[in-house]
Write a structure and sequence with these properties.
CATH class of the largest domain: Alpha Beta
Number of strands: 18
Number of helices: 16
Strand content: 15-25%
Mean pLDDT: 93
Length: about 500
């Protein structure tokens, strides 16, 4: 936890120290703002404020940020603040971007001009243990939400990284814990409170405003409204969780892939299997001195010790253990232990560009990415590639805007230690996206970079769903009050 805090402090200091040229609005404009927003109880930060750069830097948690500056940052204190901010923006010709925690890797919350509406202070949660549901506001962080749920003997496929708030995570899909069994998180949204472009607050559920419920199940940062509260279908807290992790030399990756293919065919949905290529060995060395390896992690979720060991059996019987140079096998843990940060979490603020694919060829994709990390690496040794094996078997996604394009998920992350790394990382990413195209079925909206690959946005949705989203946007937000996806009108 201390290491994670140090990274966040470093990210904040680096960003706030950067020299940026920001033009101040006129005094008359500032007075007009003050008069129009006096009903908002939360904090309002203007470009003319002396501490604007500090607040601006805090809106995105990544070290490197696009030089895009909203006219106003409004930190809503409650739903009424959200409504007032939306009404102000509409009446004064400003567009609106929405922030839950600033973890979207495309930095989608930062736009030039207009209003940045920050929901991170909206953090209320309530549970109904009888029907296994929860109402939560978007600012609550995944790890905090899971800890509160545990007190009610409940669980949820919250984000793998504990500090990610639930709002943006949910609306963009949500690839979380026990994902193959519990499905992608947005499919568990059963209702929501939403502020529309005209300032009305409505309920979306299976019985009213169904098209809005369909939309927020996966639309991502292109949503044409503000979700101020989600109702989620929760799951019983697993009584037994078993975790095995192996580090294998990268030259044995072809053999590892063969084993992963066998495991995937045999495993239950209650077994989550991830394979990551990165510089992780030896773990006690600085990352600059670490070797590129494949880290295989398997986590089983069950209701008994007997069942959880049976679920792990395909991994235990595989040859991966015999190939590993470091392993921790069959570790009995509790749900909260899943949030002990791995090395990839420590490096997260250094992510400069991220991409992903859905694929039917996870082995070929992982081998390609590992070869590029080894032979033609991006700027930082912190860069890595992740594969999720057998994560979406036979899922019907007709009741959500989210679209599955394959049974396996692949994502890769180019890190930067300094600003000089940014342009080379873009070049590396462009080459990688082109190379992996033969294995690409589609994309996942929460982990794409539309600034450099705008066509990937449409690639996150089926053609039918993409057309439906366009019609719904025109209906609910005809004047384009809310910013849609980056590089889209």
């Amino acid at each position: 936890m201390n290491t994670r805090r140090n990274f966040l402090k470093k990210a904040s200091s680096l960003c706030t120290a950067a020299a940026v040229a920001i033009s101040n609005p006129s005094i008359a404009f500032a007075k007009k703002i003050s008069a129009s927003l006096d009903r908002i109880k939360g904090k309002i930060i203007r470009k003319s404020d002396a501490n604007y750069k500090l607040w601006w830097a805090s809106m995105v948690w990544y070290v490197f940020k696009p030089e895009l500056y909203p006219d106003l940052i409004v930190k809503a204190k409650d739903d009424k603040d959200v409504i007032e901010a939306v009404n102000y923006a509409r009446e004064n010709g400003h567009r609106v971007s929405i922030r839950s925690g600033g973890h979207n890797p495309a930095r989608a919350v930062l736009r030039d001009g207009g209003v940045l509406l920050d929901l991170s202070a909206l953090r209320e949660v309530s549970f109904n243990s009888a029907d296994k549901t929860a109402w939560l506001q978007p600012g609550i962080r995944s790890e905090e939400f899971i800890e509160l749920a545990r007190e009610h003997d409940l669980a949820f496929p919250a984000a793998h990284t504990g500090i990610v708030p639930m709002g943006g995570y949910l609306i963009g899909g949500g690839l979380g814990w026990n994902w193959p069994e519990w499905d992608i998180a947005c499919r568990s949204i059963i209702a929501a409170e939403i502020v529309l472009a005209d300032g009305r607050k409505v309920i979306a559920s299976e019985t009213e405003n169904q098209d809005l419920l369909w939309t927020i199940r996966g639309v991502g940062p292109g949503f044409f409204g503000v979700v101020t509260r989600y109702k989620l279908q929760m799951f019983p807290l697993p009584k037994a969780i078993l975790k095995s992790k192996y580090l294998v030399p990268i030259d044995k990756l072809p053999e590892v892939i063969v084993e992963l293919e066998t495991i995937t065919k045999a495993k239950s949905n209650k077994l989550e299997v991830l394979a990551v290529a990165g510089h992780f060995y030896p773990p006690n060395k600085p990352v600059e001195q670490q070797q590129l390896v494949c880290a295989v992690t398997a986590i089983a979720f069950a209701d008994s010790k007997k069942e959880v060991f049976a679920l792990m059996d395909p991994v235990t019987r595989s040859k991966i253990s015999g190939m590993s140079i470091l392993q921790k096998e069959n570790d009995e843990i509790v749900f909260q232990d899943l949030y002990i940060p791995p090395p990839t979490d420590f490096a997260s603020p250094n992510r400069s560009i991220v991409e992903n694919i859905w694929t039917d060829e996870p082995g070929k994709s992982l081998q390609l990415l590992a070869d590029r990390l080894k032979n033609n690496p991006p700027s930082s040794n912190r860069s890595f590639a992740l594969t999720g094996w057998g994560v979406s078997p036979d899922k019907d996604d007709s009741n959500s805007s989210f679209t599955y394009f394959g049974d396996h998920y692949v994502s890769w992350y180019a890190m930067a230690e300094e600003e000089a790394h940014l342009v080379p990382n873009v070049t590396w990413m462009e080459e990688t996206v082109k190379a992996i195209q033969p294995y690409t079925n589609g994309h996942y909206v929460n982990e794409i970079d539309p600034r450099h690959f705008p066509d990937h946005v449409k690639g996150c949705f089926s053609e039918e769903k993409w057309q439906r989203l366009a019609k719904l946007r025109l209906h609910y937000d005809p004047d384009n009050l809310f910013h849609t996806y980056i590089n889209h009108s």
